[in-house]
Design a protein that fits this description.
about 220 residues; two-stranded antiparallel sheet; 9 strands; alpha/beta; Rossmann fold; binds S-adenosyl-L-homocysteine; seven-stranded mixed beta sheet; about 30% helix
């Protein structure tokens, strides 16, 4: 665990412990993921007016029509990702930077791309503030992945494509895993494992994410 995450206030630590207890009661069991969530100051990833709601198990707005997912979904996706013990990961949809920060607490090399520059800028400041030096964010259209650092052991999408993005499969290592919400109105959280060059799909549970949109914006 990053030493910067240790010096946290008593009150928010108690609140975070309660959040983690709720996650355990909902079935999250990976001890590393739970420990990282116990330490990571989620309130720093929200605007001040919403910070007091940071540890509720709910999705919260982060500006420009985007949302930070509820802790349960963040934890579930991270737990599914950790099953393949990844060393290099790509996240598509940096948003607030919270999911990226969580990954950086657990995985040696984390890349994250965001299409909206103002969000990316704030996320970057938060990651630097927490000294999570193994996380790197890029202003880019993630629907085409991030070829520069490929192949990845795992790719996580936090925005939902209408169809399964085939281009991302090529950037996934053999034995790697891609985790994403698929669909428009009705979305399903799905896991794709790359085995023998083929993708094996498992559907996990219904979810609701913002759409994956093409292009970048300043
Ligand atoms: N993981 C984020 C969740 C943010 S919501 C967090 O922890 O806060 C999803 C994000 O995906 C939004 O910020 C949205 O702008 C971004 N997004 C949507 N389409 C994208 C694309 N094609 N490339 C990169 N980011 C995208």
């Amino acid at each position: 665990m990053n030493p910067q995450l240790r010096g946290i206030g008593f009150t928010s630590q108690r609140t975070r412990n309660r959040m983690v207890d709720r996650l355990i009661s909902k079935g999250i069991s990976n001890p590393q993921v739970l420990e990282a969530l116990r330490r990571l100051p989620r309130h720093l990833f929200l605007d001040e007016a919403l910070a007091h709601r940071a540890y509720e198990d709910t999705a919260l707005p982060i500006g420009l029509g985007q949302t930070l997912s509820q802790p349960y979904i963040v934890a579930r996706m991270t737990e599914l990702l950790m099953e393949v013990s990844p060393r290099r990961v790509l996240e598509i949809g940096t948003g607030s930077g919270f999911q990226c920060a969580l990954l950086a607490c657990l995985i040696p090399e984390v890349y994250s791309v965001e299409r909206l520059e103002p969000l990316l800028h704030k996320a970057q400041l938060r990651l630097v503030g927490l000294q999570l030096k193994n996380a790197r964010v890029t202003h880019a259209d993630g629907s085409i992945g991030l070829k520069k650092h490929a192949p990845y052991d795992a790719i996580l999408l936090t925005a939902a494509p209408e169809h399964i993005p085939e281009t991302l499969f090529d950037q996934l290592q053999e034995g790697g895993r891609m985790i994403l919400p698929v669909g428009t109105e009705q979305q399903i959280l799905s896991v794709f494992d790359k085995k023998g060059g083929r993708m094996l799909r498992q559907d996990i549970e219904p979810v609701h994410f913002v759409p994956l949109l093409p292009g970048v914006s300043r």
